C-alpha cells in the first residue's frame, strides 16, 4: 500500500511473525519492492491482494474508474452487481494484477485475497474464480475465505458486526471454489474496530478462540507515513499491531503456512 506499510511487513516476515502477505500489484511501490519480497519465497505464502478500491487501476476502466481512481467499496459493489461493462472491466483488471505479480516473481501467487474483501462480492468472485481456473492448475493457488461460523465470531467478541457482515457476503465462496479445485482456508479471524485504545495483543489471543482446521488470522501492521495518512483510514493502530506481532508467541501454537498445511 505504502512504503511504511511495506517496510513493516518485510520486517515481520524477516522475524518469522507472518506466514503470508498479499501484494497490491497496482500500487506504485510494487515494481521496486517486489525484489525484497521475493526474498521470502518458500518461507512465507506470497500472494496477490486484489485491489479494486484503492488508488489507480493498471489500465483504463472507464465505467469503474472514469476519472482514473478506483471507487469506494460500496460503489464498486453496486457497479459489479448492476453493470456488465463494469464486470468486464473488473475481469480485465484482475488479469492485469495477476500479470503484474507474475512479471516480477516469475511464478503464480501462492494465494489470492482482496482488499476490503472485495473478492467475495457478487460480480467479482466469479470473475476471480474464472481467472484462477483458467490460469493455474487445480489446487496450486488458494483463495482466502473471510468467513467463519457465527458461534466462533461471537465467542471472540471483537468487531462482531463487521465479521458477520463479511461472512454473509462470503456465503457460498468455499463451495464455489471447491467445485473448481481451488483450496480455501477453513476458519478466519482478525476483524478489528481499529481502536488505538484497545490492547491488540489481547485481541490476537481472542482471534485464536475456536480456530478452524486451517485458520487464518488477518492483521494490518504498518509504519505510518504521509502517504498512508492521505490514503487510508486505518492509521493509528498499524504501529500497535506491528509491535504486538513482533512480540507474538502463542502458547502451544505455531505460525504456519497454509500452502504447507495439507488442508483441502
TrEMBL record:
UniProt KW keywords: Carbohydrate metabolism, Hydrolase, Magnesium, Metal-binding
Cofactor(s) listed in the protein's UniProt record: Mg(2+)
Domain of life per record: Bacteria
Transmembrane feature ranges: none
Nucleotide-binding as UniProt keyword: no
Pfam families: YdjC
Record flagged with keyword Transmembrane helix: no
Family matches, as SUPFAM superfamilies: Glycoside hydrolase/deacetylase (SSF88713)
Record PANTHER family: CARBOHYDRATE DEACETYLASE (PTHR31609:SF1), YDJC DEACETYLASE FAMILY MEMBER (PTHR31609)
The protein's name: ChbG/HpnK family deacetylase
Species of the source: Bosea eneae
